[in-house]
Amino acid sequence: MRPSKPLTSKTVQFASPPLVLAYALAGTVDIDFEKDPIGVGKDGKNVYLKDIWPSTEEVAEAVQSSVLPDMFKSTYEAITKANSMWNQVSVPASKLYSWDPSSTYIHEPPYFKNMTMDPPGPHGVKDAYCLLNFGDSITTDHISPAGSIHKDSPAAKFLLERGVDRKDFNSYGSWRCNDEIMARGTFSNISLVNKLNNGEVGQKTRKIPTGEKVYVGREEETFSPALL
């Protein structure tokens, strides 16, 4: 699949831990495990994945001997005492969560503000302009990435303005509870190509009809009725 990080990668593969080790032993991902050996044994013979892959019985035996009830019991018995710093966190007595307007990690989402018991219902879209024009294979990770925050992105600007150092940007995945940041990270996948930008990779689009190149979600006017 196409990656969300690191910034310089163009492709990335996912595999189960045993397969990760098998690819590492082979030294390449360009291999057919059904036909190609992953290495050579001490006896000089080819070693295939099927030769080292454990049976279901072997896996079950390893789990039975290694994953023991006492491991979980000891952990959960001390779960409220293990982290003294966590226990020292001041917690309001309110039954509802007390939103902190200054928090960058957790922000009260606006979705239910001013909502009534009788919502207006769906309505048509008229005279809308194209915001983004993509090809095929667009995934949720293109729309809302979990990877690195680029230093020049709208999300980076938002964080810097609120006193967050660049070294503390972390990733989009760590800011999932702040809609302000995630909205600014929309369509920021590094391998996403907007056809309105003539094949250029990035989080930008063009205002219509002016043609001005802007970040998607840079400011509120990007999503204004005049643009959409």
How is this structure best described in words?
It is a single chain. With 228 residues, the protein is mostly helical. It is built from 8 helices and 4 strands; from the N terminus they run H-E-E-H-H-H-H-H-H-H-E-E. The strands form 2 sheets. It has a two-stranded antiparallel ribbon. A two-stranded antiparallel sheet has the order 3-4. Strand 3 (204-206) and strand 4 form a beta hairpin. The two termini are 30 Å apart. The model is unreliable at 220-228 (pLDDT under 50).
Alpha carbon gyration radius = 25 Å
N to C succession of SSEs: HEEHHHHHHHEE
* Beta-strand share of residues: under 5%
| Structural class based on helices, strands and sheet pairing | mainly alpha
Which properties best describe this structure?
single chain, 228 residues, mainly alpha, two-stranded antiparallel sheet, 8 helices, 25% helix, extended, disordered C terminus
Tell me the layout of helices and strands.
Elements: H1 17-26, E1 39-40, E2 46-47, H2 49-52, H3 56-66, H4 69-77, H5 84-87, H6 140-143, H7 154-161, H8 179-184, E3 204-206, E4 213-215
Quick structural summary:
The relative contact order is 0.12. 25% of the residues lie in helices and 4% in strands. The protein contains eight helices and four strands.
